Fold each of these.
Amino acid sequence: MQKKQTWIDYYNMEAHPEGGYFHQVLKSDETFERENQSPTALYTSIYFLLTDSNPSRFHRLTSDEIWYYHYGNPLTVHMITPEGEYQQVYLGTDIEKGQVLQAVVPKNTIFGSTVEEKDGYSLVGCMVSPGFKFEDFELFERQVLLEKYPEHKEIITRLTTEEK
């Protein structure tokens, strides 16, 4: 298996504020106007590399995000729906274990991702439509989520920090 640093170096990935490493590979030339906002690309796409010690922390987008498994260890996408329901999706190649090659995280869903294998990593692609903009990105502090969803304390504690 390729070493994680090989992917990080090859794609010139940088640290993402939610965790992991990313590199934007596609951004639509077509845009549209949202009220009181700068023009928004129809879609954006990144390569995203996560490790067992550097997960994607709980955050929320105002757009749908499609995740595509590419390489490495399986990845678990943890979601809290707007109704407060906890769900998981497993990205990977082992269909007998319920893994899928791609999955959608609906807009306004709180989500984060983990690699469960010790010293493991996962390389995925993430496509956001309408396109990703940091002004549409919300990273959560632990206490905010614990107050709203105390029944999900274990995963909230794992995928948040005390401060943003």
Note: Helices lie at 4-10, 142-148, 153-158.
Amino acid sequence: MKSLLQSLFVCALLVLTVCPAALAQDLENTLYLDLASGRVVIEMRPDLAPRHVARIKELARMKFYDGIVFHRVIDGFMAQTGDPTGTGRGGSGMTLPAEFSNAPFQRGTVGMARASDPDSADSQFFICFAPAPFLDGQYTVWGQVVSGMEFVDQIKKGTGQNGMVSNPDKIISLRVAADAQ
């Protein structure tokens, strides 16, 4: 019996190591963010931000994010993407009302970028490299990286105070896991 349990434990570890997506229980609320360096698995949080999650899934299914650059990347803070113009001023054309929560911005937290108006989030989002408690309760948290953060860490960093990137890294594809083949 002990040998059987040990074998099952080893098999479970292998599955989780070889197939990070196995960590995600709900494929409809999981995203695969493919970068040149590897796959990032994001668990979406419809319990915190149902409208934001629905819009991100809608845009992902339209392949909106494919080829979009990480236009603003600040070392030790975050990597921002989702602007089809690559300037930091563009979006999909549909703004969302804020869905602030008590969820903290930690390493791997995915949040919506916005202008000074709390209800101005559109398609731009960011992934935190490190905890950012100064964002807590002021930006919408809609996801968490559960696998592949080492690939996020490799995204080319910007220069200067605003972190704009010349020759930026791109999203290869962003897919809802339930739709991925």
Note: Residues 7-18 have pLDDT under 50 and may be disordered.
Amino acid sequence: MVRRTIHVVNLDPAAEHFDYQPLADIRELIHLDDAMDDDSLRFGPNGGLVFCMEYLAQNFDWLHEQLDEVEDDYILFDCPGQIELYTHIPVMKQLAETLQKWDFRLCGVFLVDSQFMIEASKFVSGILTALSTMVNLELPHVNVMTKIDLLSKKAKKNLDRYLEPELPMLLSEEFDDSKFNHKFKKLNSAMATMIDDYSLVKFLPLDISDEDSINDVLLQIDNAIQYGEDLEPREIRDELLEEEESNCDSGFG
């Protein structure tokens, strides 16, 4: 495994517990229960989550204080999964812009459950959601298909169709004339052709039981943020030596 010091910042106000100590935790600023239990707000889970994130945006000074002593470290910002925050509500874009003003190099990592994505129509829906997020955040972006290790053997055999997809063909196989009308099929075909022609979205598979899979994703993220360019040659050498020793110890060569 890669021996790299990584700090985690929890930005999910609905998170329940961690097996590690976050560098910063939004729940110390505001918790989802605060928004849902307040008699003057009376939010449900979705509205409460949006309120918490907008409250964070109004209090970025708190986040800056939590990050003030961090220098040249690798930080993972663990964000909530509510898709509205990334597609049409501006709060996550405001967060990204603020972090960049603080000289952070950012890469958006969009995670989609592979068990949701192995049907053609759902796959197109996931692609359009990822595309909307990419356009809204305006960041270097890596799209990851997660939980590959949980797929059935049959699903894994079909996985390549979605990692290197020919979308018009996939949709033509799923949408037969007996179930879908002509306009619906034509709309989906047009969207698939646009995505296919411009190679707008690609997904990387992530299998947490496969070290090569993890390293492939990490390499893409490192390239996106130009990780290592500011390291001194000795620091780079030490990281490579540590990685080589770890691979030898774990049986990878």
Note: The radius of gyration is 21 Å.
Amino acid sequence: MKFRMLGSGTSTGVPRIGNDWGECDPLEPRNRRSRVSIIVENDAGQRILVDTSTDLRAQLLANDIGKVDAVFWTHDHADHCHGIDDLRVMRYDRSNPLPGFGSSKTCANLRRRFDYIFEGQHGYPTLMSLKNIEETRLVAGFSFDHVEMPHGPVTSTGFRFEADGKSIVYATDFSEITPAMLKCFDRADILVVDCLRRRPHPTHAHLDMAIDLARRAKVRHAVLTHMDKSMDYRSLCAEVPDHVTVGFDGLEMAA
């Protein structure tokens, strides 16, 4: 079991429009961050895509990914779902819609915003099905668990995927650590974790919170993601403990 980090940046990416690199060294290629999304893959080659980021087409091309077996959404904020239309080509050689999953609130908002994806339109077939994550625990060769995480005034869904005796957790866009999160993430092999910046933020985890979650959940290894222009890759690598990896676009890691 492994994951591929398609994107590791915050909602505006790095650099921001205007070629604004902030504190990130523009000569370090791992500082160039597209919007967050990951692929989780089991030993049989089945793949789950988590979030359809605004940069999805470029990410799939860069990582030579032509198909996935299911899609999960953490929530419906633009940087996590507005690349959904790039999944159209994955419907072409399928006899049925590509399966998608999210919380009841996320599903409702996605159906409202992208009705043509889930209902078909003007003679075009339905591209995706959409189910509440409460309805199943086994998808495309993976078992999974989930937890709703505080994300400022709203929530985001954290996922724990298990296959081949290993576990990978994806926990992005949270602003508080809850007992339910600790229970869901307990002793995971890999925790891919929200880490916007060093200073606290009202809707996202900062560096100390991300490391604290990894410690309290007793995970084997943590990987930082959703980083803004203040988080220079090499500087961060020198700061974090040995069991923490600074994520970057294209990073692949086995559980």
Note: DSSP finds seven helices and 14 strands in the chain.
